Give the backbone structure.
Amino acid sequence: MAIVTISRQYGSGGSEVAERVARALGWQLYDNAVVDSVAARLGMTPAEVSAREERVPTLGERFASAMSLAAPEALITGEYAVIPPSEDRIVAVTQRVMEEAVQAGPAVIVGRGAQCLLATRSDALHVFCYAPLESLTEYAMKTLGLKPDEARRKVIDMNARREEYVKRHWKREWRDLANYHLCVNTAWLGIDGAAELVTRMAKERLG
């Protein structure tokens, strides 16, 4: 099945690019839908899953995660349910959701290490959306109503967390160009221009 994965710097508008690409291709979009599915399987709220995805676990949480994986009695009924759901289990369920998405048909998958999970597939196009720090900061100012210094810190922090997520769970460098087939500067191309480029490449390469 043809797949487009879109990794994105916080503030680059990558999710908006993905939405336009999915609509243009007529493919299923997996962005918030991934969070919703993971939350349902683990008995969590989507907000709780998003919050866990967007931060680095504490030492205590990493210890609890290791203990829960080592001790079967920590599990309760249900295929994925854990008390409490560890970060590693959330990631494992996220991977399962993405694998099921791939089997379901052509799809556009946003973030969550999809470019790593599907790295060896010949029917995937891996895209990285980025922009200069000034543009990322401006996005945070507009969308969150933050002052310039606050917006800059937000952007730097969020992108550091995304980088750590990929490094921790996939042992890869998030910004390594070798992870991607196409890198697009959304500040230069604009959201629509970036989406048009990705859509054209998906049609040419994936049919």
